[in-house]
Amino acid sequence: MPVTLEQANDFVRRYHRHSRPVVGQKFSVGVAYDATFICGVAIVGRPISRLLDDGLTVEITRVCTYGTKNASSMLYGACRRAAKAMGYVRVLTYTLPQEGGASLRAAGFQLEKENAGGTSKDWRRRHGTAPPVGDDLVGGKWRWVG
User: Fold this and answer.
1) pTM of the model
2) Containing domain of residue 51, as a range?
3) Which one of 13, 45, 59, 142 counts the least CB within 10 Å of its CB?
4) What is the share, in percent, of the chain residues with pLDDT greater than 90?
């Protein structure tokens, strides 16, 4: 189901274990039991890395669920299909290594690069960027492509 950025960010603010809400988006989707109970959201935007922002690539910047079975796979798959239908060629997202990636593989994503996030020191030097939530969230991320 479609959700607004405000709805998606509110869900992320309340339930995501380590990431903050996002500033912008291309689109957001949700998964729900019915029209009144959203059990997960995903937010898709421009790639965070300027080097990857070629106009034909989007990045899934947040996926957040209550832990409902298969909700993450449904969200990743819906984002991938919607982006491709809109004409985007690549869909990227990042995970922490301990997150495994089963939902991504089920949605048709492949691991493209390990250790794709850069170092904590690099992030703290960038002008205009919010500081990371913790050192463990910068560097060592896995990049997936779908």
Assistant:
1) 0.84
2) 5-145
3) 13
4) 62
For residue 77, give the 3-state DSSP assignment.
helix
Cα 101 to Cα 104: distance, rounded to the nearest angstrom: 5
Query: What is the average pLDDT value for the chain, to the nearest integer?
Result: 86
Phi-psi region of 118 (alpha: psi -120 to 50; beta: other; left: phi over 0): left
Number of domains, the chain: 1
Beta pairing, strands 90-95 & 57-65: parallel
The CATH number of the domain holding residue 105 is 3.40.630.30
Query: What kind and span of H or E run contains 102?
Result: helix 102-106
β-bridge mates for residue 31, sequence order: 40
DSSP category for residue 108:
T
In terms of Cα–Cα distance, which of 52, 127, 126, 32 is closest to 94? 52
